[in-house]
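From the methods appendix. Each design record in this collection lists the tokenized structure first, followed by the designed amino acid sequence. Records were kept in a plain field format so they could be parsed without special tools. The example shown here is representative of the layout used throughout.

RECORD:
FOLD TOKENS (591 positions):
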């Protein structure tokens, strides 16, 4: 029997609140799963917030609150939890509905009264004591080696006895959260994985949590994922545990580096740690971990022409044919491009040299195949050949038959962004590269060609949400590349001034198509991009007010207001953008 669609308006669109949370405007309202989600093989993730029952996210949040109250009860015998308990009257009517592919939040572990954890140890569940591993000098979680040093004998701040046999693996001796908690954190992280740059098979990752420790991903990666699950939950109570998972990830790093078969996990975890620090404005720590991830990727030849073995090491001198047919091999390709995106984009923001080399006509060129969606690797649709340098061929303007997946478009945007900044750095008022103008024209042509391959920004409602957010980022980075390419000499060249101004307006046009819900899934790097756009708009406004004081400049002020709105919204999630918000506010307040 066909699914029955929900009520629609006379124009054929769904009434407000009738679309599923995943599809928004393209949803047909069919239940239990709409056609859009069904075609995308995401039927299990289709859910409706129609006011008749709680969504999975709401249930997860209430579970966290209940766990927090239980912790307080155990820590303080005199504490009395609130007597009012919210009951979902529609829970039983939904008990037979399909669950998430990453596990249903409606399962019994979400009920405090049916918790599978020993009541005497629930305080350790979210707030474990740190007496087993503590820094020698500073209690804050930091990047240098000193933060990984073991220290014994510090009394536990928790009144509940710490029982290492329950949560420690005898071989690896590190904290492992209970299975139910680990699954819940992974469910929270899953919709944001691409936002963090991590392309990984989340279904297999979740299944691996039930496997023996030796068959699981290294805790350095898992704790980095749990850290991001807490981070993206701000300001919910779960965010209070960021420090714990950050500390656990940092403490796991030395052991992970000593395990040659966990190299990919180290690279992925270091990228997540770096991006966490950068998003929070902790630039030195973020730069430290980004450089470490990029250096390790170069050391093992992850982006070279040579194939890589099961540990992630280059097999250039080994008689071994590459096998890129399974998900693990696909994840290694995706891991390289994850660190590439981080290295190229944030090196521009941090004003530091890129770590991953890519020199034309040398052994240091990147030959790693363009990234594909993880489902393509799962289905065996893998591009196994890359006869020409991947990035160099793209930047030269050549059009290849591959490299048009969403992850590949995101990589190309990073390459353009970094190349524009690098080329602009070759120019000064006294000296410039002999081929500077030719290189500039080639790069401009490549940017224009790249933008023509993207879905127009006003048509992004027709794509899946996870693809929409990556395309927003690709549009923004490409236009930002034009700004970086011309802003250095814009005040001396009218054409460059105009091109950088038009690129800033294009970025603002992208912002106009960003919905409130989109802000929760945007990448942190979009903040510095908007900061650069704001600088250009302020430059234009200052120039016009000096040259034409009597002319109405309300349009530029309006653009600055749009930027202020977007940057203020983003700053609640990523503090790195906060200084720019203050600058724009002061400029708008001036007459």
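DESIGN:
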């Amino acid at each position: 029997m066909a699914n029955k669609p929900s009520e629609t308006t006379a124009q054929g669109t769904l009434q407000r609140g009738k679309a599923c949370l995943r599809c928004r405007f393209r949803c047909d309202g069919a239940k239990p799963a709409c056609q859009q989600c069904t075609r995308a093989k995401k039927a299990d993730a289709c859910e409706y917030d129609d006011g008749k029952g709680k969504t999975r996210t709401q249930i997860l949040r209430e579970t966290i609150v209940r766990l927090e109250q239980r912790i307080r009860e155990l820590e303080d015998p005199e504490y009395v939890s609130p007597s009012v308990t919210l009951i979902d009257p529609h829970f039983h009517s939904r008990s037979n509905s399909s669950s998430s592919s990453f596990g249903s939040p409606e399962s019994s572990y979400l009920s405090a009264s049916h918790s599978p954890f020993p009541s005497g140890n629930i305080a350790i569940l979210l707030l474990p004591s740190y007496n087993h591993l503590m820094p020698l000098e500073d209690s804050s979680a930091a990047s240098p080696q000193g933060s990984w040093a073991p220290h014994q004998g510090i009394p536990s701040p928790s009144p509940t006895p710490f029982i290492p046999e329950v949560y420690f693996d005898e071989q690896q001796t590190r904290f492992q959260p209970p299975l139910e908690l680990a699954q819940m954190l992974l469910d929270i992280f899953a919709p944001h994985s691409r936002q963090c740059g991590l392309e990984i098979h989340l279904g297999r990752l979740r299944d691996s949590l039930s496997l023996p420790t030796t068959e699981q991903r290294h805790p350095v990666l898992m704790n980095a994922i749990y850290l991001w699950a807490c981070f993206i939950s701000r300001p919910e109570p779960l965010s209070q545990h960021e420090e714990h998972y950050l500390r656990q990830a940092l403490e796991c790093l030395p052991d992970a580096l000593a395990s040659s078969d966990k190299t990919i996990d180290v690279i992925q975890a270091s990228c997540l740690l770096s991006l966490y620090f950068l998003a929070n404005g902790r630039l030195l720590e973020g730069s430290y971990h980004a450089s470490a991830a990029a250096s390790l990727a170069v050391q093992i030849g992850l982006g070279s022409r040579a194939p890589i073995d099961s540990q992630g090491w280059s097999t250039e001198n080994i008689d071994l044919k590459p096998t890129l047919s399974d998900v693990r091999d696909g994840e290694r390709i995706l891991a390289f491009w994850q660190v590439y995106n981080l290295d190229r984009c944030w090196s521009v923001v941090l004003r530091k040299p890129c770590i991953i080399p890519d020199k034309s006509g040398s052994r240091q060129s990147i030959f790693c195949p363009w990234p594909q969606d993880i489902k393509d690797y799962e289905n065996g649709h893998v591009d196994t050949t890359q006869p020409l340098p991947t990035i160099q061929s793209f930047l030269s303007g050549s059009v290849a038959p591959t490299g048009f997946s969403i992850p590949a478009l995101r990589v190309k945007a990073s390459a353009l962004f970094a190349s524009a900044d690098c080329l602009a750095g070759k120019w000064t008022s006294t000296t410039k590269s002999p081929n500077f103008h030719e290189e500039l024209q080639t790069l401009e042509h490549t940017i224009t060609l790249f933008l023509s391959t993207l879905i127009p920004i006003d048509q992004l409602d027709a794509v899946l949400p996870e693809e929409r957010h990556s395309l927003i980022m690709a549009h923004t980075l490409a236009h930002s590349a034009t700004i970086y390419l011309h802003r250095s000499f814009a005040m001396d060249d009218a054409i460059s001034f105009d091109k950088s101004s038009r690129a800033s307006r294009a970025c603002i046009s992208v912002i106009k198509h960003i919905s409130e819900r989109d802000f929760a899934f945007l990448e942190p790097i979009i903040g510095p991009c908007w900061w650069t756009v704001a600088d250009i708009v302020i430059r234009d406004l200052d120039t016009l007010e000096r040259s034409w004081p009597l002319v109405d400049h309300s349009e530029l002020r309006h653009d600055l207001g749009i930027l202020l709105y977007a940057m203020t919204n983003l700053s609640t999630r990523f503090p790195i953008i906060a200084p720019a918000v203050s600058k724009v506010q002061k400029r708008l307040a001036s007459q």
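APPENDIX NOTE: The chain has a mean pLDDT of 77.
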